[in-house]
Design a protein that fits this description.
mainly alpha; single chain; 5 helices
Length: 112
Amino acid sequence: DDPSGIGTYSQAGAQLGFNIGWTMLFTFPLMAAIQEIAARIGRTTGKGISGNLSRYYPAPLLYLVVILLFSANVINIGADLSAMADALDLLIGGPRAVYVLGFALVSVAAIV
């Protein structure tokens, strides 16, 4: 899992314990079905969401979905960086904002 997921699950577990474990009975099958559908569409067509949308749907819908996906990815990356900074803050203390910036720079450098 990614750091934002680990941070979220840790916080939820600390606050609620096993009290919401029953939700897995409903959410896991739905999550698995969506992953399976996405994988089959990608395997069959050789394209992702935006590629299939651009082929079969009007451009405004494609732009809307791309904007929503971009927004979700930016928020998720921010949550990942924040969770890593929080973990480092717990270990050694210090300014969280500097840790977020440091993790972001290291990640971009590793990608480039």
